[in-house]
Lipoprotein
Amino acid sequence: MTKFHFFIILFFICSCSNAFRQKDSAAQEFLGKEVWTKTNLHLFQKQYVYWQNYLSGELLPVGTPLRLKEVYTEEAILTDTNNNDFIVHWKVDESTAFKDVFDQYFLLEDPKPSLQNMSNNIVESISLGEVKRGMLKQHVIVSLGYPPAMKDPYSKNVWIYWESEFRKRAIYFEDDKVTNIIYSE
């Protein structure tokens, strides 16, 4: 194979990579709108947020203003005020609607005023992406995000988060308050 053929094939592959992504027509109403992060989001390689919500990497803090640039069936591209792009990936099945995904990650208004009703200790823990005994379920969600692959977490008393592919964090609740946190390999 000549260099010319190699570059032609490489060009074709690169130009087709976006052809397999489908735009989400139901999400078009959100394009260009300013949204705010509903929870802390954990960034992989300073840009990506994955549905597994691994609790590692830098935090994109709750209340970060973003603008929705593009929405596909499995991801959304958002831009912050410094023109940094963030790509949010989610797991898709027949029952997953963009609105459901949107509601887990984003709000149409700044959530920071609601943080003012929380104690300073809770706000500090949330800003660090930490969970402590005594925190309410709503505080844990703001601090860590939603537990992955769990429908209706508010009805459950054990939430499992992934630190990595190999390490998990189980958070136990009683009367909607954190009672125990256990790490496992």
